[in-house]
Design goal:
Length: about 260
């Protein structure tokens, strides 16, 4: 914990997205790769029923693994409920976001407040019952939030959320951090090459005090992407302490 009057350390916040029984082998590989690069406890973004094809059931072997990870200090975030966008988008802006920024996975972009609240409440209950601990926060699939999602998070007192550019407290509106997240894409060759280029630049330029980095199960399917993740994490971990989101929040609390 940082003491008042001292400079907080430079931090690396790494997270594994789409944590689900559907992706268990890929998650294991990502855990292994991050650990080899110096990140022992990445945050896990858990999807209760990925694409409605991989339900996490209490008492299942995967549920037991979630509990062990949580007991080991891993922060568990709720990451949507199904991760699948099933909404009809009224505005052209949301239709563009849904089609260009993700491949049908922006689940919370078009939900109204009532449905968003129902899904967040159900997902939070499931994860907390399994792990025996409060969730660290809620992060929408593809980092896409509609008005209904914002309203639901505030109503439910969600303490932490993030998108591509910031980390904030939905319950109070306080912004903890403004900086882009480093992530990789494998959906198309153009997106993959672009994300590799961004990661390469991130390994050579001065970085902010807190760096966020997110990896996905699909990243393990492309050797060049996996190599880039390994090199990028290892390089940043030399100057930034692998940390948890609560460490960042604690730094700000001590500084205020």
């Amino acid at each position: 914990m940082t003491r008042t009057g001292t400079t907080p350390p430079r931090r690396l916040l790494a997270s594994i997205h789409d944590v689900s029984p559907r992706h268990e082998p890929a998650i294991d590989r990502l855990v292994e790769e991050l650990a080899s690069a110096g990140v022992e406890r990445p945050a896990m973004l858990v999807v209760p029923d990925f694409w409605r094809e991989a339900e996490i059931r209490p008492g299942s072997p995967f549920a037991a693994r979630l509990r062990r990870w949580a007991e080991d200090g891993v922060e568990m975030f709720l990451h949507g409920y199904s991760h699948r966008d099933e909404a009809e988008h009224a505005s052209w802006q949301d239709r563009v976001k849904a089609s260009r920024m993700t491949a049908g996975e922006g689940e919370f972009l078009g939900l109204d407040a009532e449905e968003a609240e129902r899904r967040i409440r159900a997902g939070r209950t499931l994860i907390e019952d399994i792990t025996g601990r409060p969730i660290a926060g809620f992060i929408a699939p593809a980092w896409l939030y509609g008005d209904g999602a914002h309203s639901a998070m505030k109503t439910l007192g969600i303490a932490l959320a993030e998108d591509h550019m910031r980390v904030w407290a939905p319950d109070t509106g306080r912004i903890f951090l403004k900086s882009p997240v480093i992530t990789w894409a494998t959906r198309t060759r153009a997106r993959m090459l672009s994300s590799l280029a961004v990661a390469s630049v991130a390994r050579t330029i001065p970085l902010p005090r807190v760096v966020r980095l997110g990896v996905h199960p699909g990243d393990v399917t492309v050797p060049a992407t996996l190599s880039s993740i390994r090199r990028t994490v290892a390089k940043i971990a030399r100057t930034h302490v692998p940390s948890q989101y609560r460490d960042m929040v604690g730094d700000l609390a001590c500084a205020s």
